[in-house]
Amino acid sequence: MSDERFEVVIVGAGPAGAAAALVLAREGVEVLVLERGDFPGAKNLFGGILYTSVVNDLLPEFWERAPIERHIVNRRWLTLDEDTQIGLDLKSAKFDVPPFNNTFTALRSKWDRWFAEQAEEAGAMIICETNVEELIVEQGKVRGVRTGREDGDVEADVVILAEGANALLAERAGFRPQMGPRNRVNAVKEVIALPPEIIEDRFHLEGRQGMALEYFGGAVKGTVGSGFIYTNHDSLSVGVGCLIEEYLRLNIAPYDMLDDFKAHPMIAPLLRGGETVEYATKMIPEDSYDALSDLYEDGLLLIGDCAGLVNPSIHHEGTNLAMASGVAAAEAVLSARKANDFSKARLAEYRERLEDSWVMKDLKRYRDTVHFLLENREMVNEYPDLAIRLVRRYFTLDDTPKDDVLKELWKTIRDEVSFFKAARQMWRARKTML
Amino acid sequence: MSIDVRAYLKPHVHMSLEERLALVKRRFADESHISVDQDAFRADPQKAVLFICPAQVFKHNLDDDSCIVNYEDCLECGTCQVTRRYTTWNNPRGGYGVTYHYG
Q: To pair with B88 at 20 to 30 A between CA atoms, which of A97, A166, A299, A432?
């Protein structure tokens, strides 16, 4: 059926695909990675935080040579109403030394390109500007891929699908449930250029220290979503994202949500003097653990975003799960190769490896987070707003005796919060969100 | 090199969506990678694709209540098809479409 044959074909040279390619190439496997962009990372986007426990295993002390932006020493989680913010602030000198809490800001066009080069140097072949149009499936077994190139079929013992959040191949071949407004976030982001010195002064940073600010509640109009500002070396990543269903419910466009966020009195001063140099958008999968497909078929493995491996909780982890799944897939392929058996039963080892690791343990932990928030909107709306009003009133100085202020606060809580409902919600929140 | 701090105290300059889209490098294909079932679009009371697309690829032609697809503006997130199945979205040909400089 085709002239070309590789042991493994990987579709997509993002973090998941490149991690799989790196591990396989190191073991001498003939790997072909097909990337539709001009170079790996050309079409890729995320908010801006790269968690790197997996990278550091694969490429120890990568920060010495990789194109990372800053290491995060300061994180803030904030909720806004129309003119006030409250939040939690974590800043630690412990995060200022290697391995920097495995938390860095990065820009994907640079990072993905570098990470894919590491796979290339290990012996993987990466061909860019090549779109995979369909999987070649015979009698239920994936035999290879059909590319958009002339004579473009490539055969393989196993295909690893790392096509990203817009999982066209997986969905069309029936290997994953349909994507929809309830399991996909749309996020929009701007990169806003500022000199490093201005960033360091404005965000109280020194050298390559970085800061991550995440905003909830009124910052994103009380939707199940968030806004963010992350410091890069000489720019800020600024964006918002929420479930597509939320934009539809509010009849609002993603860019309008972003513009309102940027214009907020708590946000605008942080962006002063900055020039937007890029506008970008991406879907984020928030498939619950319960909705994941098997992730392994005859001759096929699904990794990264197309598999739905994103932690939708406040941790917002994605690329590290992608890379961990790439490594797990590669290891499963290595043992399948030893047995010369690429059947579905054999490749189940991939899922077993994920289940035994933090990847699936975390996805299980947060399997109900999104659903819980959609069914209990008070969590992202009324409660954060109430918290702001209570804290603001507590510290609002007038001639009211503090005893009376406290009485007023308790009255507000009693008037606005149904005790049993809130107690039940907090109990469920502890179980589904913490 | 010294920095004039005052230059960075001025408000961030708001850009229109058109201006922001113009920042993104794109290589245009001759053929659209997006199609719309016009009857289903007309039947959508919310006309969701008109505002859900972060690049405003879809415009409403009020003359015949049809949907115009400016596929050249597409940033390739795929949100349109996930939102409304009356849009069909395929990857642009390899090497075409968006190239992010930062990402």
A: A299
